[in-house]
Amino acid sequence: MNILKLPRLFKTQHLTLLMGLMLGATSVTWSATNNQNKNTMDIITEQQLKGTSQQFILTSQYTPHHYLINLYIPQAPAPKAGYPVLYLLDGNATFESARAIAQAMAGGSNKFGTDPLVIVAIGYAGDALFSAQNRALDYTSTVATNDKPNKQYSYGGDTQFLKFIDNELKPQIFNRVRINRDQQTLFGHSFGGLFTLNTFFKRPDSFQRYFAASPSLWYNNHVLLQEQDLWRKQSNQIKKPIYLMTTVGTSESSSDMQRSISKNAARDFFSGFSRVNTNKLHSWHFYHPSEQHIGNLYASLPKAILLASCNSLNNCQKLFDEQ
């Protein structure tokens, strides 16, 4: 694994700097050091009024990709057990919004029952918000050639991508920030939601909280529905408390992304998490009115921030249980 540190600002960072100046941030400091190693580029650290943001690139031994990692560390001191952490997929598209939401909500931590939250956004090197080919490989399970959504893309790399997160990315974060390893949350949307649920079903100990927004239930002949059936039969084996939240936009059922699954089948899938033989799973599902597929990504981020940072089951239930 190589850590590639950025020698210049990405376009998204230009926007960040401009936003910081517009919001009246007291100082923005960029530091860089020279390194003759051709595989190493300089790190960028942005000092902000409400926390610190770092940006670096990891080259994985498990996948063929260079990952652009954006890390947000809040200004508030870490709780005794360490900061809770939220890992965001599609990091190029989600980091700026998630950071702003976390900063805005920080003032209400006592009211909400939340702790200051570290955010780790996993993206790809480059300026694209969504890297379609890279995420197709990383976020999906194996699929037959005839069932590939796009014949030009490679699929089925989710196992290797999870190894990257667990074995390469997490140690980097643990070395940089004091993290509460019992309060780690994974967030994904669309194919990212598919990856999130696959991880929940197959490797639930990787995280303690999961958030799947608009998961691709249609993928590989509804493989998630089959995996849920198997998981429910074994749900009594869950040893530790685990939180799961799912969301869907009410206007996305007619879109191409939900093209091959009925509304009834989708509803049955989401309600199925409440029909399990365990008291260790705490799950919530929300429909976001009038949201299309992409809109539900951003509509879900406030709940993801709260789910990742609420500091007890009681406080989480106060936030999410509908009266």
From TrEMBL:
Belongs to the esterase D family. The lineage of its organism: Bacteria, Pseudomonadati, Pseudomonadota, Gammaproteobacteria, Moraxellales. Keywords: Hydrolase, Signal. It comes from the Bacteria. This is Alpha/beta hydrolase-fold protein. The keyword Hydrolase applies. Gene3D superfamilies: alpha/beta hydrolase. Residues 1-32 form the signal peptide. It comes from Acinetobacter soli. Transmembrane segments: none annotated. GO terms for molecular function: hydrolase activity, acting on ester bonds. It holds the Pfam family Esterase.
